[in-house]
Amino acid sequence: MSNTQSSAPPVTLTIAGSEATGGAGAQADLRTFQELGVYGITALTCIVSFDPANEWQHRFVPVDQQVIADQLEAIQTTYPLTTVKLGMLGTPATIDTVATSLKSQEWDNVVLDPVLICKGQEPGAALDTDQALTAKILPLATFVTPNHFEAESLSGISIRTLEDLKEAARIIHRKSGAVVLAKGGVRIEGPDAVDVYFDGETLEVLSTPKIGDVAVSGAGCTLAAAVAAELAKGATPLDAARTAKEFVTEGIRNRVTSNAPFDAVRQGGARSSD
Ligand code: PXL
């Protein structure tokens, strides 16, 4: 017990998977939390290990349901939490376990990165997971950050242009009630990486010049984690989105190269290379 809690940074939880190389998932979330000055903790839902001998496909192992529930019980009993970020949940069973824990308390901010597809999963299993996520987790979200593919899936429209992305953001808001930050990333043609923010009133296009034309691992995780960190510190949703976009752009600019065929976001890279 301590009576100095008021000076501590806000505790921010990520419920996410481990991606063993650290580019995405819980590792990216925790680095983002650290950089943005919140106290990050994690409940692990699954372990993903790329397979270098098989085109870097994802080998996916879910954490036992009881172990996920135990982690969340320990965390939720230890800290008064207001903000949670949800990353890869991965199976319908995990979605049920996480939904039950989420519903056991009130939240100010539930930031959902609706990770829909994990390569290496059976398509059937992935479809079940997508449906369970939409039915059971999306209604609990206050802020959702779909990428291009996820925005198409959640909105039911195909997205080629910025106007399509705006329409998708409106549809997803209408379906979920959540603030939407729909990411065009490198997938909308043109010189800029455009994301669309829509909260039911304000629609804002967040735009930065593209850095290369290949997606970088961990960008989505980092963006949603940065939104969660900023909301936990009391930022408005729009300011959280703006800061998160700047943070992830900086991380992409300073990205980590490796033997893998994709680069990874480097959170705080600008600071540490000074
Ligand atoms: O970037 C999506 C993502 C999220 N979480 C985990 C992942 C990945 C993609 O590889 O492995 C654990």
UniProtKB/TrEMBL annotation:
EC number: 2.7.1.35
Gene3D superfamilies in alphabetical order: 3.40.1190.20
Residue ranges occupied by any Pyridoxamine kinase/Phosphomethylpyrimidine kinase domain in the UniProt entry: 21-258
Membrane-spanning residues: none
Record key words, sorted: ATP-binding, Kinase, Magnesium, Metal-binding, Nucleotide-binding, Transferase
Single Gene Ontology MF annotation: pyridoxal kinase activity
Catalysis: reaction(s): pyridoxal + ATP = pyridoxal 5'-phosphate + ADP + H(+)
Source organism, top-level taxon: Bacteria
Presence of the UniProt keyword Magnesium in the record: yes
InterPro entries, A to Z: HMP/HMP-P_kinase_dom, PM/HMP-P_kinase-1, Ribokinase-like
Gene Ontology CC terms, in alphabetical order: cytosol
Job description of the protein: Catalyzes the phosphorylation of hydroxymethylpyrimidine phosphate (HMP-P) to HMP-PP, and of HMP to HMP-P.
Family: Belongs to the ThiD family.
Protein name per the record: pyridoxal kinase
Gene name tied to this protein: thiD
